[in-house]
Each structure stands twice: as C-alpha cells, then as structure tokens.
Design goal:
By secondary structure, the chain is an all-alpha fold. The protein has eight helices and no strands.
Length: 168
C-alpha cells in the first residue's frame, strides 16, 4: 500500500488528503446542523454538554469564522468545532470557504509530515523507534510547557500581578 501511495504524484496525494478533510469536516457540520432540533431527547445532548464542546464554543466565540480553518491544526478539538459551527448554523457559504482553507493546511501537513512518519514507521524497527522517540519528546515538551505556564500563573496570583488578558 505504501508503495502505491509513494508512486502517486504529490498533487494527487495532496488532493486525496484535501478531499478527505473536506468530507470529514462537512460530515461533522451537517451532524451539528441535524442535532440542533430536539437534542434534549436524544443521545446527542451529552455531546453538547461536554467539556470538549464548551472548549469548542469558546474557540468559536473568540475566533469567529477563523475558528474553523484553525481547527484543522488542532488535535481532538477539530471535530467538535465543526459540529459547533453546524449547531450555530454558520452560513454554508462561509463554512465552505473556511473549511477549504483549513483543509489545504491539513492536507499539506499530512502530505508532508504525515507521509514521512508513515514511511518511517513502515521501514522497520529503527523507523518505529524514531517515531516513538519523537512522539515522546513532543509529549514531554507539551507537559513541561503546561507546567511552567501553571507555575507562572500561580506565582503571579500569589504576588498580585495577574494579567487580566482580553475581556469581552
């Protein structure tokens, strides 16, 4: 399978990933549009009351229509932002333009970095070790960054120098 993907020209692989992103995002959007009516009596109400959905709503409130293309660069939040755009009944004209831009970014990442990771993984044990070490380094850096941010916020709170940030 990998040989078949590698035999395709770059534009075709990119187009495949772009179409995949468009199909997925529009599926989520239409699920959002469909669940707006009568959710209190269905299993979808748990999604709309979840902490992940609250984060997606906060993103959408902060970034507006820009939340949609930006969501393509997130992990875990992307689908929920697409659903929230549907629930909010974002006009389809704006949604299509926003997802087209986001899908371009997503396809570029998966066509380059994603295929490189897949190739490394499938080349054998050394490739797998490299991928696992890179993932571990990424996770460690994220955890360290979050801990530093928490420590800085707690220290600032104790000294009375808490940044007020944006209000709105």
């Amino acid at each position: 399978m990998l040989e078949r993907i590698h035999s395709l020209p770059y534009p075709w692989v990119f187009l495949f990933f772009w179409c995949l992103a468009m199909m997925r995002s529009h599926t989520m959007y239409w699920i959002g549009r469909g669940i707006t009516a009568g959710t209190a009596r269905t299993r979808w109400v748990s999604l709309l009351e979840s902490p992940m959905y609250a984060r997606a709503q906060a993103w959408s409130a902060r970034w507006g229509v820009l939340a949609v293309p930006m969501s393509f660069l997130t992990v875990g939040l992307q689908s929920v932002i697409q659903i929230s755009a549907g629930v909010a009944r974002m006009p389809l004209r704006r949604y299509v333009a926003a997802t087209a831009a986001g899908a371009i970014a997503w396809a570029a990442v998966y066509t380059t970095i994603g295929m490189a990771i897949l190739t490394a993984w499938l080349t054998g044990p050394i490739g797998r070790i490299v991928v696992i070490l890179a993932a571990a380094a990424l996770i460690v850096s994220i955890v360290v960054r979050r801990r530093r941010r928490t420590t800085i916020t707690e220290t600032a709170g104790e000294t009375g120098f808490v940044s007020q940030g944006r209000q709105g």
